Amino acid sequence: MALDRWIAMIILLICLAYGYAAYFTMDDSLAPFMRRNPIWPSTFPKILSVMAIICSLLILLGFEKSSGEPKPTEINYRRLTDYKLGQAIALLGLMIAYALLLRPAGFLLSTVSFLFIGSFILGERKYLVMILASAIAAGVVWYLVDRVLGIFLSPLPMFLANGG
Amino acid sequence: MLEGILIGLSTAFSITNILMVVGGCLIGTFIGMLPGLGPMSIIAIMIPVAISIGDPSAALILLAGVYYGAIFGGSTSSILINAPGVASTVATSFDGYPLARQGKAGKALTVAAISSFAGGSIGAVLLMIFAPALASVALLFHSAEYFALMVVGLSAIAAFAGTGQVIKALLMTILGVIMATVGEGALFNMPRFTMGLMDLQSGFGFITLAMAMFALPEALYLVLDPSRSKTEGGTNEIKDLRITKAEAKAITPVIGRQSIQGFLIGVLPGAGATIASFLGYAVERNIAPKEEQEQFGKGSVKGLAAPESANNAACTGSFVPLLTLGIPGSGTTAILLGALIALNVSPGPRLMIDQPEIFWAVIISMYLGNVILLILNLPLIPYIAKILAVPRNFLIPFILFFTLMGAYIGQNNSTELLILVGFGICATVLRFADYPLAPLLIGFILGRMLEDNFSRSMQLYDGISFIYERPMTLGLLVLAVILVVLPSYRARRARARAEGVADGD
After folding, report:
1. FRET pair for A90, CA 20 to 30 Å: which of A70, B4, B244, B428?
2. What keywords were assigned to this record (chain A) (predicted)?
């Protein structure tokens, strides 16, 4: 089964769950006076779930042929291991680590290490340039966001910031 | 109209707004030039900045500047290194790159700059004429018609956006609308589909979704396939920017025709700059005399001028449905709509009456932006082209960092970053399987308005009778069905015919 039909199946399952919630569980908490309204919170989701289920079934059952040969400009997922998959996964992991560390480690430290490790993963080895570029970028962005735009970004690790 | 132009002039020519135009054009040109980064990612990255400016006209001027700057930058990289940064400048590389290889890169860039300028300016004039007329019609619309109009817009996007796979595009659109129903709606005072998670109470963040749908997959594609950002083989010598009188005479009618055609294509929902540029190229090749037809693809100035004026005019044209109906016709204008909503402006026919300064300032700033792109970029092109040499090892971590920052300062919440990464992975997988992503985002942005208008009409008519009691609503809904059914019917028939005469393939 091709990837697009697997995806259609996953979407179908999501839509079934969504439709189940819209048809059977959502209306239970509705106040009696609201039941006289012609439109309930679940009305629109009900319509949507039916349409989405029909569409995903059509794709799943192969009513719409996929375009066959992948375009040369696009990435062929069947040969995914030919590409730099490791780098991509490592960068995604780095992004998750950044998300988790942003608050506890502070903006400056986590950003400098994110940019440094990111270019390291991609194969850059000019350490001095990497450190300088990351530090300058982190400093400038922090200044712009925190001071110019006025959105608070805690710059230092939690244990150094007083009252953080 | 004169009064409007004066309002626009006085708003657009404030120091901040001029700075916004200049800054937007420069940023757009710079980033649009990097191969593999499209205008949607750039605008998505710029949105948090635009929103925190706070002034809607300044924000829209900035984002519009980024938009046409990106298209312009894309044409530069198409011509110089045959690596279009933007889909709508692919047609530019057909004739632009051969010209550069012949050592006429300077001439090619000049032709491109002049055509873009003319296309953008003619587009802005047409926008000024069309938009008020369309808005005065749209004022007669009722919420039922709005609902129907949005359905038409969404089906047109589904019909034209996919690579001939209408059902996939339709499914993506519906999925977008479904995602918009998560969280607390305006009409019903209850959270829906939040699964008890506090973080979903206010729904999915629009910036997060825009980043996850466009910027992150594009960055991941660049990582996966290094050849996409290849910058070797650039012709570094750019000299002799002048064009001859004969060439100027040859491209003038092309620019005129393609600006108008491109604008009209841009107005249609779902079409847009990419289709306009390819169609413009094809039309000009077909109507050219025999001996000139041979030149197309080998370095014809006409073949370069056509897609360049068409795509810029189409960009301007796509602002018509956005500003008059509040319905975006493309992914880029959908992102702009999202930004406007975040700034408490609801685009639509009332925009011209309630906040004329926004409407007219945007139009005037378009002229200004075009002039700036012309005078700023022509002398600077040789230097700007140097940015093409930025190593990807530094570029990619920075793109990823800016997507993260955008999602973070939008919501000030690090859970948002995890949502961003999660959706980004989903979007990349969807892109592998050839599911179009723009319909999903447009569905998401229009979803809430769609439901609001639907609910309002249901309440007014006490049921779904508004569909058959209002002829205009019915007509629009029928049109929507035709838009979706017709392409798939024709594709099936074409396939059946192809199978009938199968030659073993």
Report:
1. A70
2. Membrane, Transmembrane, Transmembrane helix
Handedness of CA B165, B168, B172, B178 (dihedral sign): positive
Establish if B337 belongs to a structural domain. yes
Closest residue in chain B to residue A102, using alpha carbons only: B414
**Shortest CA distance to B92 belongs to which of B276, B242, B233, B245?**
B276
For the stretch B261-306, pLDDT in tens is 999 888 877 667 777 888 888 888 888 888 888 888 888 888 889 9
Spans of all domains in chain A: 3-68, 85-148
Residue B59, token pair as written in the block? 């924000």
A18: left (phi over 0), alpha (psi -120 to 50) or beta: alpha
Please state, in angstroms and rounded to a whole number, the distance separating the CA atoms of residues B182 and B187. 13
State the burial class of residue A134 (Cβ atoms within 10 Å of its Cβ: 0-12, 13-18, 19+).
buried
Q: Is residue B504 part of a domain?
A: no
B71, B331, B307: which is closest to B217 by C-alpha?
B331
So what's the ipTM on this one? 0.88
Burial B324-337 (b: 16+ CB within 10 A, else e): bbbbbbbbbbbbbb
Q: pLDDT for B102-131, tens place per residue?
A: 878 888 888 888 898 899 889 988 988 888
Give the pTM: 0.81
Q: Enter the tokens of residue B221.
A: 């594609």
Are A91 and B400 a contacting pair at CB < 8 A? yes
Instruction: Name the one residue in this structure whose structure tokens are 């829906």.
Output: B192
Which A positions 90-109 lie with beta carbon below 8 A of chain B? 91-92, 94-96, 98-100, 102-103
Distance of CA B335 to the CA centre of its chain: 8
* Residue B41 lies in domain: 2-499
- Can you tell me which residue has the tokens 């259609």? A8
> Torsion-angle region of residue B82: left (phi > 0), alpha (psi -120 to 50) or beta?
left
For residue A26 the two structure tokens come to 């959502």
Check CB contact under 8 Å for B463 and A38. yes
Q: CA separation (Å) from A146 to A39, B36, B412?
A: 45, 30, 12
Q: Do B163 and A67 touch (CB under 8 A)?
A: yes
User: How far apart are alpha carbons B268 and B325 in whole angstroms?
Assistant: 12
The number of helix segments (H) and strand segments (E) in chain B equals 23, 2
Give the residue among B123, B122, B120 at the shortest CA–CA distance from B377.
B120
Residue B505 inside a domain? The answer is no
Q: Where are the alpha helices (DSSP H) in B385-470?
A: 392-411, 415-432, 438-461, 466-469
Find residue B184's DSSP bridge partners: B191
When divided into structural domains, chain B yields a total of 1
